[in-house]
Amino acid sequence: ILDDADLKDIDPTVLKHCHAAAATCILEAGKHKADISAISTCLEDCKLDKERIEQFWTEYQVLKPILTYLCRTPRHITDVSWRLEYQIKSNQLHKTYQPSYLVTLNVESGDSGSPRDVSFSCTMEQLQDLVGKLKDAAKGLERASQM
Q: What global pTM score does this model have?
């Protein structure tokens, strides 16, 4: 979006906010299974003209099956396991001595209920970053629940 020649005169921060707002609108419409009247009312309140609303609706119809799938009951992490992996040599027989963590998240979908494992490898710094972001998210939820 930021590289589009038609949008080069618009402040990048404004573009990012507009993009986020449009994405949120689309996801919320999918989550609530909104019809054309609900979407039209919302977009008219945002001062969009009929032509833009029709264009939005046409594009929304294309994305609707994907949104329906994505907006189902969210997945839940039910368990996490990890182990330290220490790579001593590379496949070229060079000594590397690089520690990394193998993390496995047990994820359960609300629809099917069948657990699935999601695994990834990360460095100590990446793992610390993930833990910091999870702590921030937990604090945010705690603040939101106190309101």
A: 0.46
| pLDDT tens digit sequence for 9-42 | 888 888 888 888 888 888 888 777 888 898 898 8
Location of structure tokens 């994820």: 107
Q: Can you tell me the distance from the alpha carbon of 6 to that of 87, in angstroms, rounded to the nearest whole number?
A: 49
Predicted confidence (pLDDT) per residue in 68-106, tens digit: 766 666 678 888 999 998 877 666 666 666 788 999 988
CA distance 14 to 20: 10
How far, in Å, CA of 10 to CA of 2, rounded?
Answer: 9
Q: Which residue has the tokens 């520690």?
A: 99
Question: On the CB side of 5, how many CA atoms lie within 13 Å of its CA?
Answer: 0
Query: Position of tokens 């099917």?
Result: 112
Indicate the burial class of 81 (C-beta count within 10 angstroms; 0-12, 13-18, 19 or more): exposed
- Largest Cα span, the chain: 65
Q: Token pair for residue 63?
A: 């994305």
Residue 90 near residue 81, CB atoms below 8 Å: no
Nearest to 76 by CA among 101, 121, 112: 112
